[in-house]
Amino acid sequence: MARKKIIAGNWKMNMTPSQAVKLVEELAPLVKNDDVDVVYCVPAIDIVPVVEAVKGSNVQVGAENMYFEESGAYTGEISAAMLVDAGVKYVIIGHSERRDYFKEDDALLNKKVKKAIEAGLVPILCCGESLEQREMGVTMDWIRFQIKSDLVGVSADQVKDIVIAYEPIWAIGTGKTATTEQAEEVCKGIRECIAEMYDQATADAVRIQYGGSVNAGNAAELFAQPNIDGGLVGGASLKADFGKIVCY
Known about the structure:
alpha/beta, 12 helices
C-alpha cells in the first residue's frame, strides 16, 4: 500500500496569533490537496486560534514541541494532554534547533516520543547531521544513532504511525539543499535502519520526510523519490509558495 505524502510547515518562532489566523485564511484555497496530509506546526500561543481557523479544511495542526511529564511544576512547558485538548494531532520532536540551542539529548527525546504516542499524538521525529559530520563521512552512523536512541522502548505498531523527518542541519535556513540523491540516500538509510530494528513491513509503513530549504522549485523532484514521503518545510511554509509545495 502506497504511503500517503505528508507535508508539514514548521513555523518556528514566527507569527503572532492574529498574523497566524490571517496566514491560514490566505493559504486555505492554495493548500487544498486531498492526496497529501497537510499540517501546520505552529507556536504554542497560535495553536488555539489556528485550530479554530482551519476547521472544515484539509489542514491539521501540529505543535513545535512538548514536555514528557503529565503536569506539575515545569514552568513554561506544555504537556501532551494540553495539546490534545487544544485539537493538536502532530508534534515535532527533536528538531535540530531544540537539540542545539536548548541542549535536548536523545534520552530526553525518547521520553517525549513515548509520551506523545501514549497521548495519541503523532510525533514528527527529526534527525540530521552537521556539515562537519557529513564531511567526516559519518552521516549515516550519526542518523542511525539518533533513530535508535530516540525509539528505545517504542513498539513496531507504534513506530508505524510516526513520521521521521530527515533534516541535514547544514541545509536548514541556509538556502542550501541536499541534492535529490543525497536526500534519497539518507531517507533510504533511515528506512533500512527501521527494518533492522523492527521488520520490513514496519519500515515500509513509516513515512519519512525531507526538510531543509524545501521550496516550490525543488519539491516535486524530492517528493518523487521512493523513500521521501513529503517534507518538513520551514520558511516557505509562511508564504503562498507553501501552496505550490503542497500541490507539487
